Input
Amino acid sequence: MSILYIAEVKVKNDQIANIKSFMKQITPDTRGFKGNEGVEIYFDMEENDLMFLVEKWNSEEDYHKYHQWRVSTGVIDKLRSMLAGKPKRRFLKRIDA
Output
């Protein structure tokens, strides 16, 4: 069963344009990674430095494989350098209702 991964991140004010550009560069690879069913990026309409990553994965295991790949390629470190704190992360499992 698919899972939803949501990360809420505060972006450094001077890095907003950079992170938007960087996310446009790396998102196609995320979408092409085995097990990814979709990814979308949102910015809060009132707090323009608040970004949300919304990713749908085939399984939590697929997400963790993807995350390890991003760590090994240095993408995670580059993203962290643009953030003003640690992300708030959530893994959500849909219920049949």
